[in-house]
Design a protein that fits this description.
By secondary structure, the protein is α+β, with helices and mostly antiparallel strands. The chain has helices at residues 32-40, 42-46, and strands at 2-3, 10-11, 18-22, 25-29. The chain has one domain.
Length: 65
């Protein structure tokens, strides 16, 4: 299982809603909205630690899950 860098949700690599390659690493996302957010500001998400898990970012605005 991979971890969505935007929301922290565990994502099955084979069933990920979206993927993105950045600096030679493939990242997996639970939604296309999370991929879009990541691609806009990847360093923002790679530098943070998601402590609240999946519930920490509010699903309403960006289409997650």
């Amino acid at each position: 299982m991979a971890k969505d860098p935007v929301c922290g949700m565990a994502v099955d690599e084979k069933k990920a809603a979206a993927t993105s390659a950045y600096k030679g690493v493939t990242y997996y996302f639970c939604s296309a909205g999370d991929k879009k957010s990541f691609e806009k500001e990847p360093e923002k998400y790679l530098g943070k630690k998601v402590e609240m898990g999946h519930g920490g970012h509010g699903h309403g605005g960006h289409g997650c899950c």
